Amino acid sequence: MPVDAMPFIEPAETESRRIVRGLHRKDVALINELVGRYHYRLVRYLFYLTARRERVEDLVQETWVRVLRSGAQFDGRSRFETWLFSIARNLAIDDLRKRKIDSLDTPDAALPEVPSAGELRALDQSSPFLATARSEDAVRLAAALGLLEPIYREVLLLRFQEDLSLREISKVVGAPVPTVSSRIHRGLDLLRSRWQGGANAV
User: Fold this and answer.
1) In angstroms, rounded to a whole number, what is the distance separating the alpha carbons of residues 155 and 169?
2) pTM (2 decimals)?
3) What is the Cα–Cα distance from 153 to 139, expressed in whole angstroms?
4) What is the residue-wise DSSP string for 50-113?
5) Predicted confidence (pLDDT) per residue in 137-194, tens digit
6) 179: closest CA among 153, 155, 144?
7) Residues 22-41 pLDDT 10s
8) d(CA 202, CA 141)
């Protein structure tokens, strides 16, 4: 068959474009699909970010409501999870401000309560960040992570647990890529120090 006689085949729709189209149309089926795919990750992110278990569910629900209301703002230029975590982070910051709690963006922010060992096991059972350890070491590592200042804990979570790129993390936290990179290196140093300090350090 001559090349010019071959039938034109419409290119497959990209995942981002499909989500953009569905959000613009407020497609209920798509929203349910996104909730099913990202709800667990959103709960885990907010739980580690704020370490305030009593507020996580409310923040998660508020995040999904915001996604539904503001879906037209997602343009597909970034991955959906980048936009989703940005919304969740902004809601968490607003919530902290209302409660007069230190900002997530300050290295000396007051540390909230640390999740219990049981909660850490439940939240991180499928986390690639902790996939190398499935015993008490996993709990120690998670506890050490939970004790880091929020400014460092957040970038480590986004990079190694949520698998976001430096550029994507930059969009989520609203900081330049070099700043994000610096926070990751500093966070890893602190995490390594606490880990090597043994069980008493965490």
Assistant:
1) 7
2) 0.72
3) 16
4) H--HHHHHHHHHHHHHHHHHTGGG--SSS-HHHHHHHHHHHHHHHHHHHTTPPPTT-TTPPP-P
5) 656 767 777 778 888 989 998 998 889 999 999 999 999 999 999 999 999 999 888 7
6) 155
7) 999 989 899 999 999 999 88
8) 8
